[in-house]
Amino acid sequence: MLFNDEYKSISVVLFWLLFFLLRKDAGGAFVENKQVVLNQNQHKESSGRSGGFLFCMKTRVSIQGYEGSFHQVAARQFFGKDVEVIPCATFREVVKIACNKKESDGGIMAIENSIAGSILPNYNLLQKSNLRITGEVYLHIKQHLLVNPGVMLKDIREVHSHPMAILQCIDFLEKNPQWKLVETEDTALSARYIHQHRHKHAAAIAGKLAADLFQLKIIVPNIHTVKNNYTRFLVLQREDTATRVQEANKASVNFQTDHSKGSLARVLTKIAEGDINLSKLQSFPIPGSDWKYNFHADMEFDSISKFYAVIETIRPLTVELQVYGVYKNGKIN
Questions:
Q1: Alpha helices in 26-102 (DSSP H)
Q2: pLDDT tens-digit map of 273-328
Q3: Residue 76 · residue 83 · CB < 8 Å
Q4: Where are the domains of the chain?
Q5: DSSP state, 215?
Q6: Which of 118, 147, 307, 324 is the most buried (most CB within 10 A)?
């Protein structure tokens, strides 16, 4: 026969090769992680090549800050180095773009730091959005002193960075009182500025990604005072596109009680009785109320059925209850 099995296999391979090339020209990309595998027999999800043709559009997420910022590092840690980031000046803009399916696939937003504590306004932004938490990243914050190639330590006259980064490195900086400290809006932006202007007498404080992106030299690494400094980032996706996370063992919940005597204690007791670890409890005032509060709770569990059972138990004890997301807890490296 003209079209025996061998010829059929060849024709199918050629068809998908042509299809892949057309998709790539249209903006697709050949990737290796968590994309769709197409071959002659099946369409399936895969975490590797698996002998098939892989293609997809790049994941696009909004971040606060500029290219080279720690938000971008967190995005790469979760989605892979090929993730495309949309820099935003404010967290409000991050959420706005993350909510728009025409602009992004979601967002990455810092929510707390091991030194500075919780970023309370971001809880309000999350509450007012249609976004769901689908993951988290714990990022070790390491600040380095960056210069253009060829610049020596003795050449430095001024140091540029965000005020928080300067504060985090103040012990090191005070050992060099001759340096002028220049505050900027972003660590990565400082690194880009030093690179673009080819400064021979200025340095920037930023992370390793900024150094790599802007071809700067780390002249002094790890200049931050507190070495055990972590920032927790939330991975956010729209409610209509968020998919169920496999092996989920953590959840974020927002609730409000009637503020009667013992009302919060009753909720917390039920959580403990349900064999759920309450890893975080954050209160923040309800705007326009007379000192009434919402509560954000992060819960950890070894069985998702335990979590849902606890939710049904505490629901009658609350005025409002909303599950922001059920996801897999991030690892602290």
A1: 70-79, 91-98
A2: 999 999 999 998 888 888 889 999 999 999 999 999 999 999 999 999 999 999 99
A3: yes
A4: 5-55, 60-141+230-238, 149-220, 250-327
A5: T
A6: 147
Examine domains 149-220 and 250-327 and report if their fold is the same.
no
Contact yes or no for 15/21 (Cβ under 8 A): no
Domain 149-220 architecture = 3-Layer(aba) Sandwich (3.40)
Residue range 27-81, pLDDT digits in tens: 333 222 332 222 223 223 333 333 333 334 689 999 999 999 999 999 999 999 9
From residue 129, alpha-carbon distances to 92, 100, 188, 256, 287 in Å are: 10, 11, 28, 17, 16
**Model confidence pLDDT, tens digit, residues 203-257:** 999 999 999 999 999 999 999 999 999 999 999 999 888 888 989 999 999 999 9
Characterize 113-127 residue by residue with b for buried, 16 or more Cβ atoms within 10 angstroms of its Cβ, and e for exposed: bebeeebeebbebbe
Contact 108, 235 (CB under 8 A): yes
Q: CATH code for 250-327?
A: 3.30.70.260
**Proportion of the chain above pLDDT 90, given as a percent:** 76
Q: Which fold has domain 60-141+230-238?
A: D-Maltodextrin-Binding Protein; domain 2 (3.40.190)
Q: Quick one: tokens of 242?
A: 């968020």
